[in-house]
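Hi everyone,

Forwarding the result from last night's run.
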Amino acid sequence: MLTLSPRRIPGLSALAKDYDAILCDVWGVIHNGVAAFPGAVEALRAYRAGGGRVVLLTNAPRPAEPIHDQLAKLGVPADAYDDLLTSGDVTREILMARPERAVLHVGPHRDLALYEGLPIELVDDTRAEAVVATGLYDDNVETPEDYRARLASLAERRLPMICANPDIVVKRGTKRVWCAGALARVFEEYGGEAVLVGKPYPPVYEEARLRLAAVCGRPFDRLRVLAIGDGLATDVRGAYGQKLDVLFVTSGIHGADFGPLDDPDPKRVEIRLMDEDLAVTAMVSRLVW
């Protein structure tokens, strides 16, 4: 059940018996971009040990294969989940369905795996038929303002943008870094048309339903699926739009808004949910069992 006044639970075990599967966010819930949260890993393992199934859903703008490797390096083992779906996976399907073949890639070199095996030619600004944004070239030092003039020029040419990560900002350790969604927002300010792929938008959930049905071995039943996430604009809004129950992890990207990370103020959470026109099922400071 979704509510504006969610109860605070001690851990996932308080809800586990009510759901056959979990659709779980990654960055901010399972790791912080630097290392895994041990309690979150153990919570997912315990849930699976009890017969539950776990599909990870991330706005990472790369196919799942390199993300499996990244998770392992951060300390998230393969036995913590059953399947992994990325916004990059869905972006590849969208690129295949579109007519443009000459693409300007805006993002770091590590995201080039997005195009492997696709009939796509990566070109410069002058030859581009479309723009694919996966992030900033160097998110350690750059901001969206560094891209404003270039994005204005691309928007003026009426090139479509496919944004493979709708996140605006994430926390890497204790530092906030800008994401591709922030570039899409600037692009739209200049009249550009951006197709945003990933949470909270429906296409990624259409694929997630298929993945959940596959790991559960039966048709998708939204009443038996719990979404877990920390981002109100992405994880929570996307799940809310799909009418899924939601466990809101308060210590993630919005942690500073709710008081002490391990003792969030329920009233602040309630007010924020009202302001965002959202509802969740329960809240937990960190994902633990």
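The two ends are 20 Å apart (CA to CA).

Cheers,
N.
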